[in-house]
Amino acid sequence: MTIGQIHGAAEISSVAFVMLHYDAGTIRVVVKQSQHGSNSNKYELISGVPLNAPFDYTIADNGTGDLTFTATYGGHTGTASVRVPDEFRNANVRFQAGAYQQADSKGPTRAAADGARVTFHSLGIDPVAQ
User: Fold this and answer.
1) How far apart are CA 130 and CA 89, in angstroms?
2) Which domains are assigned to the chain?
3) Which of 1, 33, 50, 124 has the greatest count of CB atoms below 10 A from its CB?
């Protein structure tokens, strides 16, 4: 399930190029490398995060052409820093936080089992980064 993302705006409004995923206790970041297709790089930040456990994450634009991602749970922090892919450099984008279910809802039994819930206790913007 995607719990945060940097999504295109304006001419690339249908493209999420950074997606923070929670999957079976692992927090990872997926960074698309182009505006079309599925070519992406994956970065595991932390694992062992149980369902319903609060954790922190940060997605930061360093102002240098690099993005830094962190996730913290149980006193452990994982970090990854990556270059903004060329096709997304200087593009109009927006940050989104929420539960973006990635399941395939085909068939009556599958659709009944789909669903996700995310609770945010705090969302913030670092005024220095604006």
Assistant:
1) 16
2) 2-120 (2.60.120.200)
3) 1
| Contact criterion met (CB below 8 Å) for 67 and 57 | no
Residue 87: per-residue pLDDT: 86
pLDDT tens per residue, range 95-128: 888 776 655 556 555 555 566 677 878 888 876 5
Inter-residue contact 100 to 1 (CB < 8 Å)? yes
